[in-house]
Amino acid sequence: MKIAAQGQIKIPRRVQKQFGLKPGTNVELVPENGRVYICKKAISRKAHGWEKWIGYCRKSFEDLGNPSVDEYIEMVRGR
């Protein structure tokens, strides 16, 4: 691979498919022991749109008489 004049790198299509890299995927360069690794950046809950749901499910479980999601799962599993 070569770095283009504008600093771009072309990632082979098979690697893109293998790791789910699509146009617009956020990545970061991680230097380690004289090498540079390309890693997918972790996406925050806010970016996923989960922020509005936090606490919503907890309230629903309380309304159903379950103290927590974890305790409900334990109950369903019969533990």
Descriptive account of the structure:
- The chain is elongated.
- The relative contact order is 0.08.
- The protein folds into two domains: 1-42, Pemi-like Protein 1, Chain: D, CATH 2.10.260; 43-79, no CATH class.
- The mean pLDDT is 82.
- It is of the alpha+beta class.
- It has helices at residues 13-19, 45-48, 56-63, 69-76, and strands at 27-32, 35-40.
Residue-averaged pLDDT: 82
| Number of distinct beta strands | 2
> How much helix is in the residues?
25-40%
Please tell me the CATH architecture of the largest domain by its name.
Answer: Ribbon
Q: Quick one: biggest sheet?
A: 2 strands, antiparallel
Q: Gyration radius, to the nearest Å?
A: 21 Å
What structural class do helix, strand and pairing data support? alpha+beta
How far apart lie the N and C ends? 53 Å
User: What topology, given as strand order, has the largest sheet?
Assistant: 1-2
Extract low-pLDDT stretches.
none
What is the CATH topology of the largest domain?
Pemi-like Protein 1, Chain: D
Number of domains: 2
Q: Outline, from the CA principal axes?
A: elongated
In DSSP terms, counting alpha (H) and pi (I) runs of 4 or more, how many helices?
A: 4
What order do the helices and strands come in, and which of them pair?
Blueprint: H1 13-19, E1 27-32, E2 35-40, H2 45-48, H3 56-63, H4 69-76
Antiparallel strand pairs: 1-2
Brief digest:
The protein has 79 residues and is an alpha+beta fold. It has helices at residues 13-19, 45-48, 56-63, 69-76; strands spanning 27-32, 35-40. It folds into 2 domains: 1-42, Pemi-like Protein 1, Chain: D (Ribbon), CATH 2.10.260; 43-79, no CATH class.
